[in-house]
Amino acid sequence: SDSVTYTATSAGEVELSVLVSGGGDTANPIRATATIIVQPHEPTSLRIEPDTVVIVSGEKREFQVIGVDAYNNEINDLKIGWHIDGDVAVGSLEPIGDKPASQIFSAAAVGDITIIAKFQSHKTKSLVSEANISTRARIQVIHGELSSLEIRLVSELAAGWEDLPDLGERSSDESSLPSSKLISGGKYIFRAIGQDEHKNEFSPQVRWTLTGDIGKIEPNADDSSLVLYQATFVEKGRLLATSGTVSAEVVIEVVPVSQKIGKQGGNVDSPAHASLIIPSGALKDETEISIAIIPGARGQEGKGARGTATKSQQEGKEETLPFSFLD
């Protein structure tokens, strides 16, 4: 008997017809038909859609894996093994009941991760070699809209922007306080930290305002979330950070630099580049000496220092002492 070989390459439905010749009725030859349903073979490669995503914290995104066999036929509804490569705090995966080759990624924290999908063979029930039959998607989770601000003290008694180390990375040493006592003449760095509704921290664009006659501020030219504050007069004031409709403030109390000096005398050094020299024998008892910048000292700029020597607490008296500037 005659035979024919049919090689299936494209998935789908095919009708195969056989015509028998040589019979007596040439007008009505014998015909035989067969319907062939061609199904894809197991995949030789996988494709994930989408393969690169930038997503905001709190959002969700569906990922689908499509298999491709040796003849480029696409295969849906594969049984896929999923896992996250990276910090699992960035987000999580959830299956979709009626879509075995799809999962939902829920973004939580800011960061970069990779989703890896592997095909699980129906024959062996084990994961096929990752090098041959896996695919991956790269995900970047970014912060959402600003919902709150916080002001933190980054550096105390800073010389200036040019003398500071790189402040790009936030440090665990940074302190967040509703109020701060800062020394007259000192320079300090504050940072405004923004948070979205999922508590992801970031550095927003900030406008700084200082209220009260307590010094001056200088925002960082490259990063407005940072500000340099120089404390001057002994008073209370507020440092305010504003970004859009969100704001935060810290109460600042400027205090003098103080030191106890005995009969032997000594120096009291101020961060305002002033030094109060107490001669030996100038004091009868141990006395607390304080130095602070005062309005109008040393010209119109208000730079200077004053020294006061307070006797014992029982007497509660003050005595004016000679001192000199050392710039």
Sum this structure up briefly.
With 327 residues, the protein is an all-beta fold. Helix content is 0%, strand content 50%. The relative contact order is 0.10.
Structural features, described:
- The protein contains no helices and 26 strands.
- With 327 residues, it is mainly β.
- Strands 3, 5, 6, 8 and 9 form a 5-stranded antiparallel β-sheet that branches.
- The chain is rod-shaped, with a radius of gyration of 38 Å.
- Residues 125-131, 297-314 and 320-327 have low confidence and may be disordered.
Shape summary: rod-shaped
The quaternary structure here is single chain
Largest sheet: 5 strands, antiparallel
Percentage beta strand: over 45%
Coarse structural class? mainly beta
Radius of gyration computed on alpha carbons = 38 Å
Helix content: under 10%
Spans where pLDDT lies below 50 across 5 or more residues? 125-131, 297-314, 320-327
How many helices?
A: 0
Compressed to H and E, one letter per element, the order equals EEEEEEEEEEEEEEEEEEEEEEEEEE
Average pLDDT, rounded to a whole number, is 79
Total strands: the figure is 26
Calculate the terminal CA-CA distance, rounded to whole Å: 114 Å
